[in-house]
Amino acid sequence: MLKLKNVRKSFPGPDPGRPRAVLAEVSLSLEPGDYIAIMGESGVGKSTLLNLIAGLDVPDSGDILLEGRNLATLDDDARTLLRRRRMGFVFQAFHLLPHLTVAGNVGLSLALNGIAGREADERIAELLKAVGLDDRRDSFPKELSGGEMQRVAVARALVHRPAVVLADEPTGNLDPESADQVLALLRAQLKRDGSTGILVTHSAVAAATTDRVYLLTRDGLQLQSSAASARPA
Amino acid sequence: MTGARSQLFAALVTGPLRHAAGRTVLAVVVIALGVALGLGVTLVNRSAASEVSLAARSLFGLSDLVVQGTGAGFDEALFPVLARLPAVALANPVVDVPVRVVGQQTAVTALGIDFFRAARMQPSIGVDAPRTNLSPLAADAVFLSPAAARDLNLKEGDTLTVQVGLAPVSFQVAGILPAAAYRQRAMVLDIGTAQWRLGQLGKLQRVELRLRSGAATEEVQQQIAALLPPGVTVTTPGAETDEALRLTRAYRSNLTALALVALFTGAFLVHSTQSLAVIRRRREFALLKAMGVSAREQIASTLAGGAIVGSVGALCGVGLGIVIAAAGLNAFGADLGAGYFRGIAPSLKVEWLDVAVFFLLGTAAAIAGTLRPAVAAARVPAALALKAGDIEDPAVRGNTIAGVGLWVLAGGLLLLPAIDGLPLAGYAAIALVLIGAVFLMPAVTRLMLRLLPETRSVPWQIATAHLRGTARQATTSLSAILVSFSLMVAMAVMVTSFRTSLDQWLEKILPADLYLRAGFTSETAFLDADDVSALVALPEVERVDANRFAQLAVAGLNTPLALIARPIKEQDAGRTLWLEAAATNAVPGDAQPVWISEAAADLLSVRSGDAFTGSIGERAVRFSVRGIYRDYERQNGGVVIDHDAYVRLTGDVRANAAWLWLESGADVDALVDRVHERLPGLAEFDVRRPGEIRAITLRIFDRTFAVTYLLEVIAVCIGLAGIAASTSAQVIARRAELGVLRHVGLLRRQVGFMLAAEGGLLGAVGVLAGLVIGAVVSLILIYVVNRQSFHWSMDVYFPWTLLMVLSLSLVAAAALTAVWSGRLALRDDVVRAVKEDW
Ligand SMILES: Nc1ncnc2c1ncn2[C@@H]1O[C@H](COP(=O)(O)OP(=O)(O)OP(=O)(O)O)[C@@H](O)[C@H]1O
Ligand SMILES: [Mg+2]
Q: Which terminus of chain B has fewer CB atoms gathered within 10 Å of its CB, N or C?
């Protein structure tokens, strides 16, 4: 479903001509329904990796395939459309659009995918109910707490049933209780839709809610633990 | 304050300035330009005014009173009468006529004086005279003022040829007068010589009087006034000087008003950029508040920032203003190209009081612009603003009642007459219309938001949601566009109306096929009766209308009106004059029918059908106003009288110009040659076709307005730069949001469309409002300000194409700035954008 083969990425370093390698030989293969965590020290390239998967950036070499399509062969528009249809995002800083209501934020991906009217309303209602905010659909983001905002963000990331959900430290700005709530929600929704999920986190507790945990280091991605068997589905 | 606290305060003040360095620089530039323009124009005006008064004073020397005739002068028999008055210590007779210099399109003032009397009145004359080997009394000796010597490029011993009638008359330059003697372009010669050789036999234009010490000037003035024939007045040199200034005051004050508009626009832009900055920096203010910075400290630090911007801008502005004034004087002359002060060459006088006033004005403008935003910053609700997802309160509270009230007040001001000859109420009305419009902008914003159509397009939905959510920012941007654009529109409409009216007027008043002018100095350059007959005798010429330019003095007016004598009958007056009103009553038996210009009607306070008394030469005559005509030529009032009637009244058969109607098929070029053959001894004259006159006149018009255009363009550029800067600042502040939109799958062009829609919508609404307000302001300019300043009316013409192009470019600029800023915001990568907190 999602395949990374020998992905390399470097950024221009302080002296020109000598790029700074960030990702070296990263390979990964995920199936639908897989939910993994990526951990690693700060600056090692976790966010960079997510961005490559999202098609927001291109690797120096190596291939990234989503549902059989090589991202490198797609132009910016095609990658954007792929993101629109097949991906969902959760950010550390929530990033709800401040001038749209809760329902408007959640419905954004639906609208972009041309889903409107009854179907859209139903899906939005369903997701808001799932994240426990069905009574806040007309609130604006500034009227919500951080945990509530992140639950809206989770709903937004999942409402159009994407194939891949990328979450970059979604609990970094939350208190432990809200964090647990958001993580549980994320997992439940992913599992329900059979979507692939990648959670980047610094928290072992957060990582433990996924099926497998990988560690990103200078040498690549290594499987750390397979928690799936240990935890109830 | 303790050291640490004052350090913190300094950081609070300079931090934001440094953080938004681009905007700070822009605000400084805006204030600097406003101050520079204002000070520049003021300094030029001041230099011109002081030069005019110096010139007038140098003309009148140490005299206490001046007896003054119209251009045609008065009988010299008056001189002994005045000289013998017991209160008069010294009487100095003067012949003062402009003469045309042969071979040049310029005139010099010929001053015929009695050197010995004059030297006592004006000690600086004659100091050098004995040094020359030429007797000043020699029949061809003239002395030149330094200005004349420089402009005509003549030195001692050279020959100066001037035109008298149609004939050349040559003089020898006997010497150059010291600089203190006369400041204008003058040739000074013996009075007897002047009367004889310049065709002024038996005439004087002026007698300057010095009174015995102890004589009461006012009493003597009244006593003399009783002795004078009609048309001759007695004034003080001071009044003469004031009059010389009055003629140009309206023009000068209009320029000053324009320059102040630039400063006003500057202050307004500082206000709008600061307001937007406060909205953007809500978090920062909230954080400071949470950390214990008091509201007073907050306001003080914001105001101090404004004061720094203002004083730095004003400082640059005064420097630039002095440079502009010097350059402007050099390039355009004292009237900045308007042609009012021909023949004087002022040097720049920097009045430090003006400099100080404009420095303070600039600083005050910036502080005033920061005041409201500072208070708004102090009122940011700390708890709310610190939360993620915080945005400013989108509710816009407009003061519609205050806005409408200001408009009503403006309407009332429009009914007031000019104050001291200046349309001050009109200017105030324009300011109120603009401020009122700004008060009404929130209502316009609400209306715009209500009318926004709903579509399925996601970028459009986000754009409209954003506009709704940021109604306050939208209002501020709209107001900025409104103020700059409406002024642009107003000036464009005014100038176009004026130019088109002038063009159509020229077409109307130039009915003949060919115009012949003896020279522009009506007393010394003329056609005599034989010359006119010679023209009539030409086979190509069907008809000749002789025109005589003279002066008409009216009691109570300091300056005589221009009198134009030419064939005109009551029934066809409308064919050669642009009549605004015509009399319906019969001409009273004792009165001469005349047509007077709007300026004359205003000066005399008469309407068509009324009668007034004036004097031609030394004859008092009763006139009946048969009509009032539009006149863009003679700003100080013109009167048209039938040529036959003029000859009957004065016996003067000279003509200054001739209108030629040609036989059909006549060869104009050949005719011009024939005119030269037929008028023997002809020195110089102009023969022009109507088209040429129109072209020349419009060229002069454009030159006159060159500085106006320039000021206008600068004000507009300031406005556009401000709008562009605030748009881009707003867009760049939305980096993270744009990044998220790219994440969730908006295409690049969809983000571009969204930003273009927001920018374009604001631009379009601002432009529409600007068009309406600009049209209103232009009507005030045309019907009140110009009418009161220059006494001429014009028709309104909208430069549709220009307005369309301007509107579209502004909307396009607004949209493109937004898109371009979006590009800039996401330049590095959308990835970084979402990392940032908002
Ligand atoms: N656009 C860029 N240009 C240059 N260097 C970049 C760019 N983006 C990321 N980097 C660098 O690449 C490295 C990896 O960055 P990345 O954001 O992926 O780290 P991370 O693992 O997500 O760290 P953290 O856990 O702190 O979020 C860092 O050293 C960063 O400075
Ligand atoms: Mg990261």
A: N
